[in-house]
Amino acid sequence: MAGAAYPVQRPVPPRLRAAHTRIVECEACPRLRAYCRGIAEIRRAAFRDQEYWARPVPGFGDASARLLVLGLAPAAHGANRTGRVFTGDGVNGSGDFLMRAMMAGGFANQPTSHDPQDGLRYTDAYVAAAVRCAPPDNKPLPQEVDTCLAHLEAELAALPRVEVVVVLGRIAYDAYRRLLARRGLKLPAAPFAHGHVVAAPAAGLPLVIQSYHPSRQNTHTGRLTDAMLGDVFRHARALLDGREAGRP
User: Fold this and answer.
1) Of 31, 44, 66, 88, which one's alpha carbon is 20 to 30 angstroms from that of 53?
2) What CATH number has the domain bearing residue 121?
């Protein structure tokens, strides 16, 4: 995918496109950039004939979204290869697990996410990651998470209708907390529990729903099931519908 444009769901308003461009061009974290490029040179045997994206990965979805889904980071042979968040990490990988759950809430049009040309579309949802480059061992350093907050802030500024944020895992939740803290707003550090709803810290800000991350470590051990993650997105839909119904 070297030289290819990043995958988008059109239309992409100018402000969101500008945020995407800054993400793709970012070189702020040398450790992460070196790791992503190294993975692209070595490649996995199954993808030996493919060119890897190997650049920071922007968010993807509906520019009119009321739901933001915030994950951890691109997978080394998933989004770091395909250029689209939660895409290409294998059959029944985290992308497929997430798509099935988002379909349950009416946010995704299909239950898989394997390739940027597979026809996936989100309705009323936008999916991004706290860190935009694949980190070694899926463990970004705290300063790398902090550096990437500028990208999340820029995307959120370009998504003015967001009313609910689903955070996939503790790192994503803490990243969102730190982003709000920069504005002088406070979310509680604890508890973190699957399905827990955190009230908005100020009027006009989104509610937050905590969820376990759909990593294989969680899904293959039964810590997170299809039903559990589906319930999160059905709850998100109900909250959005309730807010809509409450408007004059």
Assistant:
1) 66
2) 3.40.470.10
